[in-house]
Amino acid sequence: MPRFAANLSFLYGEHAFVDRFAAAARDGFGAVEFAFGYPFDRRELATRLADHGLQQVLINTPPGDLAAGERGLAALPGREADFRRALLEQALPYAQALHCPRIHVMAGVLPAGAERTACRATFVANLAWAAAQAASAGIELLIEPINTRDIPGYLLNRQDEAHAIVQEVGAPNLKVQMDLYHCQIVEGDVAMKLRQYLPTGRIGHLQVAGVPERQEPDRGELHHPYLFALIDELGYNGHIGCEYKPAAGTSAGLGWLAPYKTGDKIP
Fold first, then answer.
1. What is the CATH number of the domain that holds 37?
2. Which end of the chain is more exposed for a tag (fewer CB within 10 A), N or C?
3. Domain presence at residue 118
């Protein structure tokens, strides 16, 4: 049976961030993920997780200057020191404090005038360095193809690109984060992509949302019950992040999860 994690950067927006842990636990979630919890003291977040019996399964590296349009630093030539400092001083300490086993390394938006080949080379070099740092802490790193409609200019967009980079770096703790929403928008043929890549062992995390509005998975053009059954069939035993924008209140829109609950608990 699929295991699900509530993405607290998307779900429960009707609550203050630190109160979303309790809301997710009340709805039966046993696991959570979020993008950027760095404005909050990591000890407080760890306490919230412990108090509500939640497992943190994913965080992102710091994005850089969000207001200026930055969405990650790892592929930005000339920003290597910023990326390394953010990993060592923020991402890794937060992951360790939250007992979080994986970090999504955000590649970033290509700077104006930058050559894609130079950005890719920077990304590969930074990933090789970061994977070594994370390995010593027992943490897995992920890279995620993101569609250019949601984040125009983002370096990494396709599954084959991500897998090629993982293979090039060659670090056992570097894997791909496959978001079926992004995959459908950029490439389609999601079921066949799952059949192609899940058996490789290079998928470290999955995420879902309805396409195209990025609402609940029971809305839109993808048939998630079929995909969830396929994911089970292919032997994936990690979590599936619920990274979507609720159409009307988070709790009211969780009817799609009912078939996957054991009693009142979401695996």
1. 3.20.20.150
2. N
3. yes
> Would you say 230 and 197 are in contact if contact means Cβ atoms under 8 Å apart?
no
Range of 122's domain?
3-260
- Catalytic residue check, 80: no
Total structural domains within the chain: 1
- Is 243 part of the annotated catalytic residue set? yes
Q: Which pair of structure tokens corresponds to residue 163?
A: 């897998």
- Looking at 33, 70, 216, 243, which residue is catalytic? 243
**Confidence (pTM):** 0.97
Q: Which residues contact 220 (CB under 8 A, 6 or more apart)?
A: 210, 211, 212, 213
Domain contains 121: yes
Catalytic position from the list 33, 70, 140, 144:
144
The Cα–Cα gap between 23 and 229 comes to 27
Over residues 109-128, the pLDDT tens digits come to 999 999 999 999 999 999 99
In a domain, 198, yes or no: yes
| Cβ–Cβ under 8 Å, residues 157 and 146 | yes
- Give me the residues paired with residue 141 across strands: 103, 174
Which of 176, 145, 152, 166 is CA-nearest to residue 70? 152
